[in-house]
Design goal:
The chain is about 80% helix and about 0% strand. The two termini are about 20 Å apart. Helix 1 runs antiparallel to helix 3 (about 40-55), helix 1 packs across helix 4 and helix 4 packs antiparallel against helix 5 (about 95-120). The chain has 5 helices and no strands.
Length: about 120
């Protein structure tokens, strides 16, 4: 579970950094739309949040809290991106990211369940 958390933290941190540097690229790939003005500012704010999540999940931190944080993010991202896609605002990476976040949700959730069972909870 630690390796999955580390890989996911690196990926989310890289996405956050990309949003900070040039939100238009990520927004275009996910939603197929151009972003400007307040939308670009919000995308950069989201980028800061992803970088902060990555920092919170860094190696050496408490594993369980990092997993809970990444599980919450992955479930929320999968559901919200799917809702956007159903509404018709899909870029080339939207549905693949829905799938990635759904799989991550299952992996993190399953890992927590296995951990609770092994701890006798």
């Amino acid at each position: 579970m630690r390796k999955l958390l580390m890989f996911t933290a690196l990926a989310e941190g890289a996405t956050g950094a990309a949003l900070l540097l040039d939100p238009s690229i990520i927004v275009k790939l996910l939603f197929g739309e151009v972003v400007s003005g307040a939308g670009a500012a919000m995308a950069r704010l989201a980028g800061m949040c992803l970088v902060a999540l990555a920092v919170a999940c860094r190696p050496g931190g408490e594993l369980r809290r990092g997993v809970h944080g990444m599980l919450s993010w992955s479930v929320g991202a999968a559901v919200y991106l799917a809702v956007i896609g159903i509404g018709g605002k899909a870029g080339v990476l939207l549905w693949p990211m829905v799938c990635v976040h759904a799989v991550l949700s299952a992996l993190f959730g399953g890992g927590l369940i296995r951990q609770q069972k092994s701890n006798g909870q």
